Amino acid sequence: ICFTSSSIKADGNNYIAEGKLTLHGVTKTVKIPLTYQNNTLKGTLEVKRLDYKVGESYGTFRAGEIIYLDINCVLNSQNLTRL
């Protein structure tokens, strides 16, 4: 799994990270809602696993269609000046 952000924008008291998510060789543009507290950005991204060809042979009987990716990004002081 690889996420490369192209932007992080304020959305009220929270943030939205936009960028490219690559999973299992498939790349798609996604937006990840983030909260900020104690030098940490946290978010959860809901992904349809079949869109990324994950577990295609399982169908949805043995494994759910949706997977959740939890993000915890601890910021150092250099990053904080940019937010």
Features:
5 strands, 1 helix, 5% helix, 83 residues
Q: Helical content, roughly?
A: under 10%
Instruction: Give the end-to-end Cα distance, rounded to a whole number of Å.
Output: 25 Å
Strand order of the largest sheet: 1-2-3-4-5
Total helical elements: 1
Number of strands: 5
Task: Report the mean per-residue pLDDT as an integer.
Answer: 85
The helix/strand order is EEEEEH
- Could you say which structural class the secondary elements and strand pairing correspond to? mainly beta
* Outline: elongated
Proportion of beta-strand residues: over 45%
Low-confidence stretches: none
Radius of gyration: 15 Å
Sketch the major β-sheet.
Answer: 5 strands, antiparallel
Structure description:
The protein is mainly beta and 83 residues long. It contains 1 helix and 5 strands. It has a 5-stranded antiparallel β-sheet with strand order 1-2-3-4-5, with no helix packed on it. Strand 3 and strand 4 form a beta hairpin. It starts with a strand and ends with a helix.
Question: What's the quick description here?
Answer:
The chain is mostly beta strands and 83 residues long. The protein has one helix at 77-80; strands spanning 2-11, 14-23, 26-37, 40-48, 66-74.
